[in-house]
Write a structure and sequence with these properties.
The complex is a heterodimer.
Chain A (H helix, E strand, L loop, with lengths): L1 H14 L3 H12 L5 E2 L2 E9 L2 E5 L6 E4 L3 E7 L3 H6 L2 H28 L7 H19 L4 H6 L2 H11 L6 H22 L6 E9 L6 E3 L24 H26 L1 H35 L2 H11 L1 H37 L6 H33 L7 H36 L4 H21 L1 H7 L10 E2 L6 E4 L10 E12 L2 E18 L2 E15 L9 E13 L7 H5 L2 E8 L10 E9 L4 E8 L7 E7 L1 H8 L13
Parallel strand pairs in A: 4-11
Antiparallel strand pairs in A: 1-2, 2-3, 2-5, 5-9, 6-7, 6-8, 6-10, 10-11, 12-13, 12-17, 13-14, 14-15, 15-16, 16-17
Helix pairs in contact in A: 1-13, 4-5, 4-8, 7-8, 9-15, 10-12, 10-14, 11-12, 12-13, 13-14
Chain B lengths: L1 E4 L4 H8 L5 E6 L5 H12 L3 E6 L2 H11 L7 E4 L5 E5 L1 H4 L2 H10 L1
Classes of the chains: A alpha+beta, B alpha/beta.
Amino acid sequence: MRSLVLSAGLAAIVLAPPIAYAQASAAAHARADEAVFQGIRVELLERAHDGEFPLSAADDLQKVDTGARLRLRFVPPTVEARLSSDKRWIALNEALVELGKLQTEFLHLVDRATLLGPGRDPGFQAAANAYNLRLVTFFTRLGDPAFGAILPAARLNEIMREAGKPGADPWTMLVSHLTEQRRRMYEEAKVATRSQHFVVVRAYRIPRQGEVQQVHVEGYDNLPSRPVGAAHLERGLPSARELAEIQAALAGAQLVASAIGEIQTNKDAIRSRLRELIGNIGDNLQAQLESYRDVVRRLEGNGLDPLVAELRKLDAAEADRLDARITTVRLEFSRVSRALGPLIKRVEPLRGSGGAAGLADIASLFQAVDALKADLPQVSAALQAFGKAVSGLPADVGRVLAKVEQRASAQVKADSTRLIEDLNTLAAGAADDLFAGLPKTRAALDALGAQLDTLSRGKDSTVAIDAIRPGEAGEIPRPLDKLDDGILDLRRTDAAPGDSVELRVAFVGAVNGQPDFSRREKEIKYSADVLNTGWHRRFSGDLIFARALEGEGSDTFKPNVAVSLEWHYYDRKRRDGWWNQLDPGFGVHAANLDQNADQNVELGAGVNMSLWGGLLRVAYGYNLGVSRDRSYVWIGFGLFSALNRLQVIEGPPGNPPAR
Amino acid sequence: MAETLPPLTIQGLEEALANPNFKAYVYIGNAQDTGWALAISAQRMLAAVRVYLVTTKALADTVRQHFEVAPDSVGIVFGWELDVRHQLSKAEAEDFLTVAKAIADA
């Protein structure tokens, strides 16, 4: 399985631009998480060499500089903000406004009444009725919980009883009551009686390789503070960390280059084995498709429609049921045909293609096998539905039909099982068979597999973080009214380019004044990749395909390795801009070459440029090991970093990728 | 305008109730009653309402008999015409919202 994934991954690197990267970015932007708890807004600011930048809890594709200080701030709500979300406050203000309008209208009607002469005035009656109805409606709002909390019915009665005394005025008394309520609510909001909650902050460094580490957040844990490290100062010669990475990448690239050479030497044998495997599947598919067609031909060819007509004369209900079942069988067959169609389409060209089997040819074969597996669930479902429809036909409509039914049912079941087994067998063991007797290829696949295993562990960082239990991590829970800024200084961690950091802010409940970690009311999570921002340099060890421009070694691209030093610029102000997406690099390289049969050691040096952060690199240089026809070009792939960047690896079963 | 019977007579009350531009609310009880205080407040908040207080038992009996209302009613709500629209018990007359709704509905 891993070999298949590796091969498909290799092909994906070669053939597909970093679309996955852009898609993942869009998905992250679509997800939103409001960083607010009880009106307290949580902010995370990154202070780096080129300014201060806010980080968003809703975006996990953010970048932070290796030398950044992350400042976590808790912004308490203003009195107005707190009140504006209080339904009682809203109801109270609305009531005061409405009361003012009612009073104005009442006074207007009183004036109008004094001017009334004898006799009925329908206009006045209508106006008075409308006003009275509005007033009653206003008081009816007492039933509303928000308004009722401000002016309970009993309190209204009390006010009105007092207002009925000589010299008292209900309007004034009502307004006084509501105004007093308003003043009281404002005072309460100022005091900000917050519920008993605690804030727990934890930060983690998720290295590209290795275990997740909890890192110190000043003010929120008692982990030891470390001295400022050197990762953010990588400017000149490669650091020990970088040297180790270059060596590992070069070793990996060398393995792959050797493997490619071996594959090219043995391409006919590989192709023959692969064809055999694919051919078997193709034969099976064709046979099965024919078998299903035969079933339907039998269903149609045995005069089922007249049979149904005859049956209808005897038993109309049974005939309808049979008719419906036959229709279902035909429908299910068409579904099976549709599902098998793409499979046949994929397999046929592989079986029939001629010519030499190059790297792309082999990669495309593996891609096709992967695609077959992707189609498998749909085919399986269609086959099962077909089998069910056929086996469900009633047995009492005639011997012919029963025979067809039995045959079809058994055939479908056997075919379905065989197809699934074939594909699974191919997926599990094909690569082993394919590369048997090719030790360099085997070694390269194993090395890539080991790399992928490491990366898979990195993708499981969330699982690892969740496994760190509350209370064991040395955190300092803080009550909501004592929230200081938290500082995460990346310079004091081992964070290096390629790592990521995660900061989690959890609001937990309280029991007897102590934090209750089992009641996690809200958690806000910030994630960011660590990298050098602005102008910075990167080393890389690449798998290259080099060719001399003229003379010996100019007839073919040969796999080899090179080490490059490039300068890149990360634009912080236009993070998602085209420049950062393209991530071009410019620099120099030293390459191992194999262009002259007489030379044991051939070294080349020259200039290079790359796109997509080194995913694709082109170079021009001079072969220092030969005296003529020295110019060469190469195309290179940052294979190991590309695997990481494109995330072509498969997550462990049952665990969706963490990021 | 709040008036009291006596000195207002039944005839005087009937003449006042005949004004087609006012509704009326007649309360039977004492001037210190909660029901009467609420009646005054209702008059001060609802439009085109006049309230009357009947304080003596003899007049109360006469009013109830004259307008054909139940003996236990203490609040009588008249509409725009000289017609009884609602009769309120003592408990109902001591609830401001009930009184207001009855007058608005009359």
